[in-house]
Each structure stands twice: as structure tokens, then as C-alpha cells.
TrEMBL record:
<dbReference type="GO" id="GO:0030272">
    <property type="term" value="F:5-formyltetrahydrofolate cyclo-ligase activity"/>
</dbReference>
<dbReference type="InterPro" id="IPR002698">
    <property type="entry name" value="FTHF_cligase"/>
</dbReference>
<protein>
    <recommendedName>
        <fullName>5-formyltetrahydrofolate cyclo-ligase</fullName>
        <ecNumber>6.3.3.2</ecNumber>
    </recommendedName>
</protein>
<dbReference type="InterPro" id="IPR037171">
    <property type="entry name" value="NagB/RpiA_transferase-like"/>
</dbReference>
<keyword id="KW-0547">Nucleotide-binding</keyword>
<keyword id="KW-0460">Magnesium</keyword>
<keyword id="KW-0479">Metal-binding</keyword>
<keyword id="KW-0067">ATP-binding</keyword>
<keyword id="KW-0436">Ligase</keyword>
<dbReference type="Pfam" id="PF01812">
    <property type="entry name" value="5-FTHF_cyc-lig"/>
</dbReference>
<comment type="similarity">
    <text>Belongs to the 5-formyltetrahydrofolate cyclo-ligase family.</text>
</comment>
<dbReference type="InterPro" id="IPR024185">
    <property type="entry name" value="FTHF_cligase-like_sf"/>
</dbReference>
Amino acid sequence: MNSLSRSEFRKQIRHTRNALPSDVQHQASIDLITQVSTQPELIKSQHIALYISADGELDTQPLIEWLWAQGKQTYLPVLHPFSPGHLLFLHYNSTTPLTYNKYGIIEPKLNQTLVKPVAQLDLIFTPLVAFDTQGQRLGMGGGYYDRTLSKWFETGKGAKPLGLAHDCQQVERLPTESWDIPLPKIVTPSKTWQWEIHR
């Protein structure tokens, strides 16, 4: 398995998570809350970015609703209209108008009054296709989150990333590129993985 290319890893892991039965998906989304609720980063965070799940990703909707119940402010990524390859984060609640972006992913309708600069976020729950035992993350290939997290990675300041994934998305070792941003912590329904990030 270690000889797979990045695109082969993507194909294999996406297939695996999409094949999870609905009852397993549902239980995983509930178990995730149990794992996330004790994380020190979350407890002290007020402004939290997440994403609406797609393509077999661990369902974040129960977590979002739990965060609302805790009085946390939540934000969703929107493809930047003028800066290709970059994300904006918009405030999100139960009445926020939603639309589909060019990738078929649900995002808030763009409203500049709802934009929260990344520097003012406390925590960014980060999607991923696969992760390895060194904290390397494999995304969908667009580089959006690598760009979003680059300032944090360079300085150690600002919104801290925390990856979310199914247990089946963990592999032994991923092939990496120079622009990949490793994650300091990844939470699955059964476990919390944590690494020292070397900048």
C-alpha cells in the first residue's frame, strides 16, 4: 500500500469511506462529538470553522449542532470569488442561505458582512481524504487548506487546525509534497492522534 501514488490513495480511501453503511456513518458522527468535546483547543475556542460533509466524509452536522448548543460561533468555507485557490470563512447558523460551489460542495451564499478573517478564527476543523502516522494530510488536491493554514504553519500563531476523519482514512505513510501542511492533531470517532509539528 505504501507504493500508491497520491491519486491512488485518494481513489482508494474515498471508495472505502463511501462504502461505509449509513448506520456506521451515523454512529461515527455521534462518537466524534465525544472525542472532540474534551479537546482543550475546542474548549477554549469561540470562533470555529468547519465544513459541511460531502463524498462520504465524516458527517459534521451533529457536531455543528452540538457546537451551537455550547454557544460557539461557527463558520463555513466559501471559495474566494476573486482569489483562485483561496477560501473565505463565513458565519454560519441554522438560517444561513446555502448553495453548491463548482465542486458540488455546500457552502454559504457569499455575503461580505458575514466574512471572518482567518486570523480571527480560533480553530479550523480541517477535512482530509487520508492521513498517516506522522500527521501528514492528503486533501482533494486543490491546495485550499494548505494555503489557508500556511501562515499558522510558518508562525505557529492564529487559528489552529484540527483534522477530522473516519478511522478507515488512516494509512501508514503518505507520499508528500513540499507545500503540504501537516496537522498537529487529527480526531477520529475512536481516537485522537497528536504530533509535534516541526517548522
